[in-house]
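User:
Hi there, any thoughts?
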Amino acid sequence: MQQRSASSKMRIRMRFVLFLFIFSGFMILISRLFLLQVVQGEMYQERASNQQTRSTILAAKRGEIYDRNMNNLVRSATVWNVCISPAEMTSDPQELDKIAAGLSEILDIDKSVVIEGAADKSKYYLRIKRRIELETYQKVLDFITSNDRDTPDIKGVFFELDTKRYYKYDSLASTVIGFTNFDNQGAYGIESYYNKILSGTAGVIVSAKNALGSDMNFKYSQANEAKDGNSIVLTIDEAIQHVVERNLEVAIVEHDIKERCTGIVMNVKTGEILAMSTKPDFDPNEPDVLKNPLAIAELEQFELEFSPETQEYRDKLQQLRYDQWRNKAISDTYEPGSVFKIVTAATGIDNSVVTLNDNFYCSGGIKVSSHTYGCWRLSGHGSQDFTKAMQNSCNPAFITIGQRIGAPLFQNYLEGFGFGETSGIDLPGEAKGILQDYELLSKPGMVELSSTSFGQTFKITALQMITAASASVNGGYLMKPFVVKQTLDVDGNVLSTTQPTVRRQVISEQTSKTVRELVASVVNGGSGRSSAVPGYTIGGKTGTSEKMDVADKVYVLSFVGFAPMDDPQYAILITLDEPDSRLQDMYGSTIAAPVVGAIFQEILPYLGLEPQFTTEELSQRDAEVPELIGLKPHDAQSMLTERGLRMRIEGNGPSIIRQIPQAWQSMPKGGTVIVFTDDETMENEIAIPELVGLPAREANAELLNKGLNVELRGVTEDGASTVVGEQWPLPGTVAQTGDVVVITLVERPAEPVIPVDAGPEYDEPYDTEPTDMAAG
């Protein structure tokens, strides 16, 4: 009985052990399955997917960028990335070395990139070279493809499609347009601000692989197509942008500008930016390459202390790159100087604290509390009315006006004109500026208020200044500036159009009319004479501001101009930061104003604004061309303006080496003297176009755009009713830049009257729509 009981216990014990063993095994299995399927499930799914499929990214084509006239400025083109599949490449060291050597030579990469990359046989994808163009692509294709039946193709080397950004005009408007980074994403400027619109959505092809790792038949692939980006149309006019940049480049050479210069052309009624430039700038096709000669020299000097391998050198290089990418016109602040007197005048007139009949006495300075402010004319201007004070840019007069306005009103109008806040322009990096604290502005003694009244001791951007100045002459409306006019889908359909936005009305229409009279007088008989353009009414204001936060005595010279003054449409602001301090007569009136005048001379005819001459001017149509060889271009422009002539600059040299017509020849007033500043632009043959039958305006614009001068004969009072009847030289004649084409204008033939009941004798007219010229 005891033996049977012991045997029974043994069986129970064995069953229990067996149960524990089975249970433990089951739990281990469950734990393992939990680990594989839950904890590490995603990892193994990814491994399985990688072994069974291959994913190929399809790059989206980035949208294009056009100027306002649909001239292409930026486009994306197809390029190829070169990739390897290490798992599919040969394991033979000698064969691999040959492949690496061949790819290294074609792609300009180190052999180790291929050899080391091919060593990891668990990988099926490794990019070894990005964005090769067609010529290089063909070389790689020829290298990996065998034309010999006995020699197999090289396995494991393949391509993937990509896109590359191309900037047609290199540095043109580069600080506005910006550039894309290595991942084809917008890094600066328009490219950055509108990145989501331009970039599109990448696609992908997922293809199945067989046991050998090769792609299977196409039916085992699945593709999600890329969606290309939308395009944008700028308000920038490529032709006007070229004119502004050429004149800025000449000014830099003429006056040895140290801290770059800016130029903005704005439509005062809409806020559209027709041109915006900072010079020197950069080429967005190679944005990392320094272009500013001063920056290059600075880096070379830095290299004497720190080698290119050091972090200090790399940091310095990157800082210089940031400097050249920065849009100085919206990101850098400066003290505007006397250009700001437009705002002071507008504020004073709008609040009836000053009228055109008020008189001011200038002895050469004015004492405010314990501080004496000097006038630029040390001997003083004597007694002068308000118009003369504006013409003379008299500091004591404007200090008096500022004190009459008082701190509370001045503060309100500063904010009303947009200072101390961003303008809302559709560009990244806009600065707000730095205004005087109200507590300082309202301090007893009025020192800060006095200095503010003539544009010192506070900082603004060039964009803020031209926007406020435009409000002063356009009827008093502060406009929101913008640089993108439209967005287009991939088929060119308009998705959105930017409408002009009035931020607020700052001054009354009547005040604005009075300000127009004042700024027109500055050009007609004041400090802005050198910005005058024969045949056009120009207004403007000069500025010469000392940089108070710099140890050396250096200046920012500026000029803002408006045209035409009977109905202002366009404003130009030029700022020249730190011209050579050794220059004599270093004022905005002598250095910046001629640059604005030179730009107006070229763009106003292009914009369809015809010159209007008085009867007296028409009776004295010819002027003698002076000797210009050896002069600085913008000095020559001032000389020609006095004679009723215009000037066009060809080249970027510091002085004139040739002129057409030559000195002492006669030419019609309003004609254009072409000056050359370097050898490269001197020879330029032009075929004279067919002009007979064209309206006078079109013929004039056609010749001016080709660099030819025009002599009009048979002019009638109503220019709109005339067409070209004859021309000389004849069409097709080869001419040189600056040659004169004589066109004789005749009355436009009357349109034939078609009888209403003509019936079938007459064909139906074409169904035509009027052409929208607003974009031009």
Q: What stands out?
A: The chain has a mean pLDDT of 85. The CA atoms of residues 142 and 725 lie 61 Å apart. The first strand starts at residue 53 and ends at 58. The chain is about 35% helix and 20% strand.
